[in-house]
Design a protein that fits this description.
Helix content of chain A: 40-55%
Number of domains of chain A: 2
CATH superfamily of chain B: 2-enoyl-CoA Hydratase, Chain A, domain 1
Radius of gyration of chain A: 18 Å
CATH superfamily of the largest domain in chain A: 2-enoyl-CoA Hydratase, Chain A, domain 1
Oligomer: heterodimer
Number of strands of chain B: 7
Strand content of chain A: 15-25%
Distance between the termini of chain A: 52 Å
Number of domains of chain B: 1
Structural class of chain B: alpha/beta
Number of helices of chain A: 11
Structural class of chain A: alpha/beta
CATH topology of chain B: 2-enoyl-CoA Hydratase, Chain A, domain 1
Shape of chain B: globular
Radius of gyration of chain B: 19 Å
Largest interface: A-B, 76 and 82 residues
Helix content of chain B: 25-40%
Shape of chain A: globular
Order of helices and strands of chain A: HEEHEHHEHEEHHHEHHH
CATH architecture of the largest domain in chain A: Alpha-Beta Complex
Strand order of the largest sheet of chain B: 1-2-3-4-5-6-7
Distance between the termini of chain B: 48 Å
Chain lengths: 277, 290
Amino acid sequence: MSEHIGLRGRAWFQALTGNNQPSSGDPGTVFASEAQIGDETALFLCVVPSPASRFPCVRDGQVGLEEAFTLAHHLRRVITEDGEKPKAQKRPVIAIVDVKSQAYGRREETAGIFFAAAASADAYASARMAGHPVISLIAGHAFSGGFLTHGYQANRILAFDDSGIVIHAMHKEAAARITRRSVAELEELGHEIAPMSYDVRDYTKLGLLYKLLQVDDPQHPTTADIEAVRHDLADAIQDARRGAPDLSSRLQSDTAKETRKAGIAVRAALEAQWRTA
Amino acid sequence: MIQTTLIPEFVTRESFIELDGRRRAQSLFDEGTWKELVGPFDRMESPWLPLQGIAPQFDDGCIVIKGKIGGMAAVAIALEGAFQGGSIGEVSGAKMTAALDLAAKDSQEGKRTAAILLLETGGVRLQEANLGLAAVAEVISSVLALRPHAPVITLIAGTVGCFGGMSLAAGVSSYVVMTREARLGLNGPEVIEQESGIHEFDSSDRTLIWAIHGGEQRVGMGLADALVEDDAEKIKATIRRYVQAELRPEYRSQQVELYRDRIAALDTSEQIDPMSLRRGWNSRKTGELR
């Protein structure tokens, strides 16, 4: 299962940017490149596994200290460079997501990975709030703190309609252990109880996804796949520009209104009571 | 004859840690100014826990209190560590996000409303997994939307500590206040031991845990701003100072180049000594009040 983590992210980064190397000065675990999408230039970001990383706990595609600050560095650069531009000309940011998790390491905890992850989430959210369309393309795994650091602040989230796409707060073995269930029970729950989903089709019931994309094999994109995905990304960019710069779109679909009705009711109640407090 | 005895301060003070989440939040406000919003009598509970045979709670472990602190508008949002480990679910997350968004709206309309997050949490509630994770992303976004307009102060008193996704909410806050009994980190020691092995982190090594995650270390290395005693009066006074503080042009989680350079300078060939790191990093603190 875990051996392909990062391969799809890398394949799509290369397909969409023509590049498969880290930028000079960056660690080998982050790809950042600008490339055309529609009639404009976008910043593409991807975290990839690197067996040579000097941080042992990120070598399998986890997001750690260097990854978080490198993502934040590129995002802050683009925000600053486009600072004076009108919103319609601010560069879109495309996060290609295929991450195993955050790094589970002592070096990381000691040096404050919580803060590194926060700095990256801050940079993504700041780009979005400044008017950059921020789009996440989930090409493989999107887990836990890894996803919070890289991708979950996007205005629009796209994912391939494929059994290899897995989105969750914790991988199955650990979640099963902590909630005292078997992995089989957990998988069954994922089909029955919407927020417990692992599969992307179950995840769509939450209303958090903008679009499911159809490709034959996400690990080996064809020319036709690439063209179709470019089109979908350009469409998501335009939709993001038309919408609010916050995350409110995640509550507005019919599926969100059904699945997240408890949360929506809480928001309404709090707003009503706030005015009289 | 009556013998006057010298009673040490730690005996007469009122412990903050011994208070539950609701009383902690209440204790921060000016007397007679606060009101709880969407409290237990509104019975807004998790729809997902009963489906999994777990008793929900009428406040979902999240307490929202609005009022005045030092005469200024403020909202405190407390996670109750005693309910499901203070975990974030759909309802508790929505309370937090909604309160932050309303504070941002008021602040933008000229009524500056600070937010205090009292975080005692292990992170995402695994029974509401994907909605918990989504809630964390939304809380982070809402903290960042409020931060330019009013202070967002994270208070971690202990003893649960602040772990998992909510540690990112602490990380993007304007200020972080901790006690010596508090811990702050992304992954708890047990999780690291489970995922990466006991050679990476021995979760029974209490000295190591406190040296890495403890409040004294986090403040000492500059990733938190104030170390406070477990004393309700002193904590209230510290929070009041931050509520009244002037807004800054830049907060810690925006200082990307400083920290990127610091990470680049780390020797990773062996484990990092927490005390050496503290000495190296504490030269520049961002959150000190002048």
